[in-house]
Design a protein that fits this description.
Bound molecules: N-(aminocarbonyl)-beta-alanine, zinc ion
Radius of gyration: 21 Å
Oligomer: single chain
Strand content: 15-25%
CATH architecture of one domain: Alpha-Beta Barrel
CATH class of one domain: Alpha Beta
Length: 467
Amino acid sequence: MGIVLNGGTIVTAADMYQADVRIEGERIVAIGYEIKQPGDQAIDVDGCFLFPGGIDPHTHFDLPMGTFSTADDFFTGSKAAVLGGTTTILDFATQFKGETLKAALGNWHAKAEGKCYVDYGFHMAITDWNEQIAREITDLVQVEGVPSFKLYMAYKNILQVDDGALLQALRHAGESGALVCVHCENGDVIYDLVHEAVAQGKTSPKYHPLTRPPEAEEEATARVIALAQIAKAPLYIVHLTCKGALQAVTKAKLKGIEVYAETCPQYLLLDDSYYNLEGFNSAKYVISPPLRPIDHQQELWSGLQTGILDIVATDHCAFNYQGQKELGVNDFSKIPNGAPGVETRMGLLYTYGVMTGKLSIHEFVALTSTNAAKLFGLFPRKGTIAPGSDADLVVWDPRISSVITVDSLHQNVDYTPFEGFKQTGQATQVFLRGKQVVQNGRLIEEKPMGNYLPRKPFLKRKVEENV
Ligand code: URP
Ligand code: ZN
Ligand code: ZN
């Protein structure tokens, strides 16, 4: 017995057409007309789009931060994700000082197993580089299904690695079939600017963006691109926010360097005026890199339109305002960095991208699902609607409009940076590997059904390098 979704409009990164979709077990088995078989359940999705389930390749669920952890763990974060139309997340398993990568990966498996409402994979964030770690990379790619690593050029003395480690990691990863993802900000410069500001009594959140200027991101982006070129390794820039960094990526792409980049809804839709809110409210927007002056937004939208930016992810890293963000009330540098967004990504990009005419509906699908599946070793199992692909499907009803408020969301955090934003469309029904998990916008499957996704190695663009 299967399920047939009747009368919807299928949208992929390439096509849009009306057809029925038949699901059997976990997979899509047929697309066409009169495909219903005896005993099948028919679900009418007339007037709705069918999108491939969203893939958010940048989340931080259950991330320890000193004495506490992010407000969303895998249980609450993934519940919010699926209700927003995302059926796969890639979270950053993080190696802390002295740990092996294998131990770090084990920690993240324990956090996620049996607690995730969406399918999930891990990138491995390396914070402590040495020869033994270098040797572990191949194992992670070949045995553990982790073909992507992350390194930070910022957060000095905590997560930051130096250029030597970056170069080595790029080399080892590139040779092992992995993609290196990098947080690009000049951590040394930021460290000095922050300490200087605090010493001068400049302690309110408005100094957060002033001590992390766009030039610090631009410089780091250009530097890591140069390192990737030296290492002959592919590179993925996470959460790109500003014109200068975009120009560095544009220049690299035009030169044929294999570099990819993501941005996030907060950088497309919010600007640095949020650092002038009353009281301590600006702490909600203390994220790194910070929100930029409004003129950077148009450039980022252009980057999406021209294909210079490949993915819209969230960097969901939720901290409550009360009790967590408030830890920095006397010193902005003590505010935990990060904001929630996993539930609002698809709705915001549809509303402010597709509905405004900035993005085609195909670009929307590519940016929220297909490109991530391709870059992170999941395509064509994920990221498209085709026979043989996992039946991860979002029934998107474009006739529904709503307003985003913290109370309307399911993220386990006491604010949303997008409070009051209007949304057009809703993920009214969501299927995860053939099982309906969301109906009429509500979760109907109480048990988390998400599976770990071992991923395929990264295929470099130059075909001869892959054989
Ligand atoms: O402020 C942010 N983005 N926190 C999460 C960690 C990171 O930099 O990705
Ligand atoms: Zn980052
Ligand atoms: Zn992040």
